[in-house]
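Sequence, structure tokens passed on for absentees:
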Amino acid sequence: MSPDKKKWLTFLVVASGVFMSTLDSSMVNIALPSIMKEFNSPLQDTEWVVMVYLLTITATLLFWGHLSDRIGRGRIYTTGMLIFGVSSLACAHAPTLSFLIFSRFLQALGAAMMMSTGPAIIKEAFPPEQLGRSLGLIGMAVSLGLMSGPGLGGILLELSSWRALFFLTVPLGLGFSFLGARVLPAPNRHLSAPLDWLGALAWAAALTFFSLALTHATAADWSLSKLLLAVGASGLSFACFFRLEALVPHPLLALHLFRTRCFSMAIASAVLSFMVLFAVILLTPFHLDRILGLPPAQIGLVMLAIPSSILVVSPLAGWLSDSVGARTLSTLGLAASTSGVLLLTRIDSQTTPQAIAGLLALLGMGQAMFLSPNSASVLAQAKRDEAGAAAALLATARNLGMLLGIAQAALLFSLFFREFTGGLDLRDFRPEHRAFFISALHGAFAGAGLTGLAGIALSWLRGRREPARTRP
């Protein structure tokens, strides 16, 4: 097989995994109101269908990146695709909300294996001068998955049920896992250094306790002592994690990478960028459903505005990043995203779906301007033997932002809605609560806007220039 052909077959396998995981996540977000209705579950329980997925990915990405440097990125990636496909089938047959959440946990393990290794595989397959452009093409796969999800999900929700959504990714996961086993590179070296098991456990425990504290802060069955215990356990786990990473010879988290300001600011701004995006992705379908009364297919079309704008802007942003650099493009992108979410604080029951779609398009355009240049700037500063760690850090930042964005938005919305309605949950929503819903939505979006402003500042502080090529 010629190197050029193998390069593009490798791209096809990686892009298919990206498409599959983003297709699934965008459809599940659309289906949350339907899942809530079927299981009659409160918001803090229903959101765990999304939260457990993001939490598992965020908690295990560093570990899979760590492991891929030892047994090969191709092996990790193809195994992850297979696990994802099988777990999708389990999600489709979930008899209870608890089983669905557990199946999503298994699905997330497969997604994390793909996400932690995909960028590094692309980096090795393409020459350094094409890094930004190849990542821009991966951004197109992301946008295609996100773009297809709302439309397909809305149609399937009207024709069948939310269970049908999970069947779509079953053949993709199984088929491309076998293709990946033939195409992706076999490991050319085996690191003998031991795995950082203690660091992995401490990181997972810290994120789990922190997520439990955020999602149950407004739960009636959680006392203040339980919340304080969860917060304290999270803080202790984080302290143990960073202490372990400073002591072990081959840590899970390469702390020395953060000594470079450009790298650390890029990672931090990525977290904040995705917090903004997923606050909007979580709450907007509920507004379209509860306030505007749109059917699922129309909700999907409105939400389609985000990935559609990403599809248009992402290739251009990737191409420009190879010559302009990340600081200007990424900061402008975050400014556009933040403007979009702040304008969403002005929507009400009279705002048309078209107007909301326009604001979502602005948000998506900003995300596309930010993502490709920011990712390229992170990978360009990693040495060749640190590519797996840098790619895993990049994916961890992205999914940590998603996780925190959903948790923050749900927490703020629940706090405001409970305050305005005298202690009610979103599942208790009735038409007379419309004004309270809109006020709570504005409060949650305002919180996301403040997060975006912090991201703009950090993105600009990364410095004026980034390395143009990957260091050997």
About this structure: The two ends are 26 Å apart (CA to CA). Residues 466-472 have pLDDT under 50 and may be disordered. Residues 197-249 form one domain.
